[in-house]
User: Which sequence fits this backbone?
């Protein structure tokens, strides 16, 4: 399991959906995910991507003029046995 | 990261307190959902809905209101959404599934009230959920004593219409429910200023039937030996069904089903071969209550069906689409809705038949009968459920729980022991 | 080969070894399951058993089972108690386990767990209740039982430990005999355990495991309430650990 996860952060939901669609078209895997709290202080959508695809994704962002805030890496903090629900 | 703060403030929400909920959601969602391997790609849509659960859909509802439309908040699978949509209004579920709202409810309700009611009342009173702020009118029903009194408390703060659900299933009770639907139609017409015509009602019956069919299709994929989707994911979809735009939800769920059906024909399963198939029966699991599903599926079980309001009780059976007058349509609605088997009815043997049938259809190895703490009706009915399963040779584990995390370890022990028992 | 069963309970941690060596020991769990686990590891090493070695297989069970990081298998206390109970009572029996934190009723049929029940999030009807009441009366658990045998039962009707404690305080205030209060306390636990047990159809053979398992006084009180004989067991507190050790052997085959 990789230790670091990469997220693309957006100013709004529409841009997230645009990039998601474009990446899908390219066959690049991106998972729509809630923005981790450490990266943001409000609820929101971001894209969970794989490190190896970053180059392709950056090119795609540029090509289609999609507004993104940044691509950020954080330590993977996912634990299904944590039993902290909301 | 779209900032909905302004919208929440305009709704009169307690934004600071609400932020505490926003703070824990991404981690809980990550633990339960992003930890799963080989999730269907179609789940991305539902990920998006949850990621901005208090943003995207609420802003759509507000747009609708700006155009003069009304929003009705409902709490129960007996309340016919068809009537609401036929009056060009929107129905949205309001049941609270988080411990976050419970202390708010406890300010006015006895502690020994079920967490679902406490959370729902707390979400309103503490002003910490946009859906509860947006709904122009709440539609209650008489499915339990706790709810009946809760409506009176809520009615001091927001318009509430209560539907009197009969508690027996004789012909005259079905007729009485039809009369209640008729009365509800009149309330909706007056509140919205829109007439519910036979044409409009036919349209909304089709709309909601299509949603039911999509959910049925989703559940059918879980009957296969190769299970193409986790129980956690299926639960999330069931939960979102109560909130989302029905047309879009149907479309996205059918799209997911295309993917799942392909998985089935390709022999793809998200569980290891031989994983024990578990059905959950009992009280509803309102969003974001994912605790039990996560515990079962991280303890070596696969949940293949939920005989719950957030499950088969919500979508099984369609409303007859062939009726032409409003009166006939309302009778058809009453018949469909009175076919739901809730523990508030006496007797309720139909529910036992449902569970036995579902156990066969979904080839379940064991049943976990879930009771939300202080739900006297389902708790008592558990006696019959357990006995009937025993007679049918189906192992059953009874579990009582609430929305807190504090019993997670005990639940893990029980669930693991149950699965160890099934594996032996 | 040595097969080690480690049962980390809420109050006591039990260890049983089967194989080349056969030994049992118990120690208080204390505040940290992890610390206790380390102590167990060292204690086993003193006895010549290296839990990390190839020729040692370890099964961890009990509420602190996940803390045993060197375990080869982690199995719930239900399955382990059933296996241990089977060893003591045979292939078809019911095991009533009164533990420090919860009480379990396990039905074993043809050597398999057929059904089980655990009490809910409540300490009434568990060892915890007895511990609290013994503290209140200023005696040890052993003394509580000795006193109870000499007393006449005073009714304690509350279902909740907190309220039951108030009842006990009332009795103390009224100047009732300590023996009678103690008898009431034991009787109340027996009543609650019996209530839980009677939710299931019990077979003829019923045994008691857990910390109270050797107490004839408690089993006779329990037998009276249930209306059939509940047998005390000499090594009953080790039932979970013995079961774990046996499962370690069976699993590694």
Assistant:
């Amino acid at each position: 399991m990789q230790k670091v996860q990469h997220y693309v952060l957006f100013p709004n939901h529409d841009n997230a959906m645009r990039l998601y669609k474009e990446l899908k078209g390219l066959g690049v895997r991106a998972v729509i995910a809630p923005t981790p709290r450490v990266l943001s202080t409000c609820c929101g959508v971001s894209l969970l991507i794989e490190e190896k695809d970053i180059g392709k994704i950056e090119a795609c962002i540029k090509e289609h003029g999609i507004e993104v805030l940044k691509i950020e890496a954080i330590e993977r903090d996912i634990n299904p046995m944590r039993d902290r629900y909301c | 990261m779209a900032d909905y703060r302004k919208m929440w403030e305009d709704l009169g929400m307690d934004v600071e307190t609400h932020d505490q909920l926003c703070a824990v959601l991404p981690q809980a969602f990550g633990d339960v959902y992003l930890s799963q391997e080989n999730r269907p790609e179609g789940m991305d849509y539902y990920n998006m809905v949850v990621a901005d659960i208090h943003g995207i859909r609420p802003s759509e509802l507000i747009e609708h209101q700006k155009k003069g439309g009304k929003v009705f908040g409902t709490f129960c699978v007996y309340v016919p959404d068809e009537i609401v949509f036929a009056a060009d209004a929107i129905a949205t579920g309001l049941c609270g599934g988080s411990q976050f709202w419970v202390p708010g409810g406890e300010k006015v309700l006895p502690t020994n009230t079920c967490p679902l009611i406490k959370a729902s009342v707390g979400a309103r009173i503490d002003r910490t959920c946009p859906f509860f702020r947006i709904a122009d009118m709440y539609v209650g029903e008489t499915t339990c004593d706790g709810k009946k009194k809760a409506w009176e408390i809520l009615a001091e703060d927001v318009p509430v219409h209560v539907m009197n659900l009969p508690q027996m299933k004789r012909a005259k009770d079905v007729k009485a429910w039809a009369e209640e639907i008729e009365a509800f139609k009149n309330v909706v017409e007056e509140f919205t200023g829109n007439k519910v015509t036979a044409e409009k009602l036919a349209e909304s019956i089709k709309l909601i039937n299509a949603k039911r069919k999509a959910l049925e299709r989703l559940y059918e994929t879980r009957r296969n030996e190769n299970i193409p989707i986790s129980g956690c994911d299926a639960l999330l979809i069931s939960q979102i069904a109560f909130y989302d735009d029905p047309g879009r939800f149907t479309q996205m769920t059918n799209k997911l089903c295309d993917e799942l059906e392909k998985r089935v024909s390709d022999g793809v399963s998200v569980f290891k071969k031989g994983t024990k198939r578990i059905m959950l029966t009992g009280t509803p699991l309102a969003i974001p209550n994912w605790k039990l599903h996560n515990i079962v599926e991280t303890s070596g079980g696969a949940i293949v069906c939920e005989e719950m309001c957030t499950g088969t009780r919500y979508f099984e059976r369609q409303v007859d689409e062939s009726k032409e007058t409003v009166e006939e349509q309302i009778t058809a609605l009453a018949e469909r809705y009175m076919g739901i088997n809730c523990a508030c009815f006496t007797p309720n043997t139909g529910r036992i038949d449902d569970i036995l049938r579902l156990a066969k259809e979904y080839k379940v190895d064991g049943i976990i009968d879930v009771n939300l703490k202080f739900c006297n009706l389902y708790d008592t009915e558990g006696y019959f459920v357990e006995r009937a399963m025993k007679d049918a040779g189906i192992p059953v584990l009874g579990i009582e729980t609430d929305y807190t995390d504090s019993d997670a370890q005990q639940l893990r022990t029980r669930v693991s022991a149950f699965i160890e028992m099934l594996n032996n | 080969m040595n097969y080690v069963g480690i049962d980390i309970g809420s109050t006591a941690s039990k260890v049983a070894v089967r194989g080349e060596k056969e030994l049992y020991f118990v120690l208080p769990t204390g505040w940290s399951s992890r610390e206790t686990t380390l102590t167990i590891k060292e204690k086993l090493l003193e006895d010549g058993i290296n839990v990390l070695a190839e020729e040692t297989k370890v099964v961890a069970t009990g509420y602190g089972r996940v803390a045993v990081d060197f375990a080869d298998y982690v199995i719930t206390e239900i399955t382990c108690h059933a296996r241990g109970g089977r060893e003591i009572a045979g292939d078809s029996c019911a095991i009533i386990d009164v533990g420090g934190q919860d009480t379990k009723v396990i039905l074993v049929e043809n050597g398999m767990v057929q059904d089980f029940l655990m009490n809910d999030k409540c300490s009434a009807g568990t060892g915890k209740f007895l511990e609290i009441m013994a503290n209140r009366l200023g005696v040890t658990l052993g003394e509580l039982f000795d006193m109870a045998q000499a007393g006449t039962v005073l009714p304690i009707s509350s279902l909740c430990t907190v309220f039951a404690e108030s009842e006990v305080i009332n009795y103390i205030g009224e100047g009732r005999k300590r023996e009678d209060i103690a008898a009431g306390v034991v009787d109340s636990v027996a009543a609650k355990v019996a209530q839980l047990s009677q939710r299931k159809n019990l077979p003829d053979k019923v045994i008691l495991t857990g910390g109270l398992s050797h107490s004839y006084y408690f089993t006779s009180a329990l037998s009276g309430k249930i209306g059939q004989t509940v047998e005390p067991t000499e090594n009953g507190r080790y039932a979970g650990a013995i079961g774990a050790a046996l499962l370690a052997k069976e699993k590694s085959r």
